[in-house]
Every structure is written in C-alpha cells, then in structure tokens.
Amino acid sequence: MSEKTGALHGRDSVTRFTARAESYAAYRPSYPPAVIDALVNGLGDPSMLCIADLGAGTGISARLLADRGARVFAVEPNSAMRHAAAPHPRVHFCDGTAECTGLDNSSVDLATAFQAYHWFDPEPTHRELVRILKPGGRAALVWNVRDDSDPFSGSYGELICAAALDREVERHQGAADAFARDRRFSGVRRQVVKNQQRLDLAGLIGRMESTSYVPHEGPVHAHLLAGLHELHARYADSEGYVALAYRAEITLGETRRT
Question: For the segment 86-96, what is each residue's pLDDT rounded down to a tens digit?
Fold first, then answer.
C-alpha cells in the first residue's frame, strides 16, 4: 500500500471526522424513502433482514434501515461518531471497519455503505463483504452527490471547492466503478434518486462544518463563512431557508451463489 493510499484508507479516514461528529449528526442530509426501497426490494420481509451498515457514522442510514423493521449492525471505527449517534432499538453499534467488521461469516442479508465507500480499501473490503454476506446477499453503495446544475447548490459547491484542503470530494465514482468490476459480485446496477436538504442559515453553516476537507479556522474559513452568509441572503425563501439539491447515487450487486 502506497503512502498516499495508506492516508486515504488508513487512520486519516477514521480520525478526520472526530471533531465534526456533532455537526455530522445534526446537519448531514438524510435519504428519501425511495433509496431505502431500492436497497431492500426483492429481499423479502424487511423485518426478517439482518443488515450491516459499514462506515455508519452517526447512524443516519442505519436508523432508516431499522425503521423498516430490520436488525442493523452499524459498523463504525470512530468512537466520537458512535457516541454522537441517536439510539435506536434495532441498531447495534460495533467498533469495526469495512475491512474487518467483526461480524460472523454469512450472517447478513444486506451490507450497505452510505457516503463512506470511497474511504475503504477496496480489496480487503470486498473480501469482507463476501465473507459476511449470505450467498446471494446484496451489497449497496449510496452517495448523496451535490447537484451543481442547481444554481444555489452550484454556488455553494464553488465556495466549498475553493476552500478544500484536499481533493477528496470526487472519489465516489472511482469507488463505485471498482466495486462494479469485481467479479465476486453479479447483477451490478445503478440508480439515481433526487434528494433535497432545506437549511436555514445556521443549518447551512453547520452543513459546511460537517465537511471533513474544509478548514474550521483561519482566513479561508472566515472567507467561507462570509460567502455562506451572502449566498443565504441571495437565495433564501420567505421563511429563511435554502435548498441544497442532491442526487442519491446507488450501486447494487449480489455476491455469487456457490
């Protein structure tokens, strides 16, 4: 593993959200019901499913899956993220990684990764998916991707990208492609669902603060805050809200039956 890859898939990918856990829990967008529908369709009664949500963060996606009646193991290596998570009776948080979940062999019907798969080391993660999924079990990768064709969302994106400390922003497509190329998974298909997040000014600032690749102090941060205030003043509706537009991009595939 190269130094660059090690930084991407190693401790930096685990610790970079530690100081942002509270903002992440409060201000990251959720996912519309159609996304959860796409993940569980064809798997039978959701209340009978056992799901592993990898890189679960503060449990945004794990709780949505559990709301369908499933039993969910939320696998998250960052203790600050786990501790910031709201509890759910059908969600059990586990200290583990996508590459080493600690779950039993052939124990889950569905393994998901929301907004996280690009942080994982592909080869050991794919081996782990094959190990923990039942034969024919499903893996699902989901990203909320900002829709910069929307005028407000595009302007927000320009501000964020100008302030970015690194170029971590656009890796999700490569991660989905790596999954699609792996012959251990069959029937790989993709789907897009529109999503939106309404935010007041405090929420817009909080959404920015949850982002791992922008500074949280100094002159660049001050410039970013000024830009957010200007954008909010320009685009807010009569109730003081702006709307960030997203495309929820979904990649699905099943493990091959043996």
Answer: 999 999 999 99
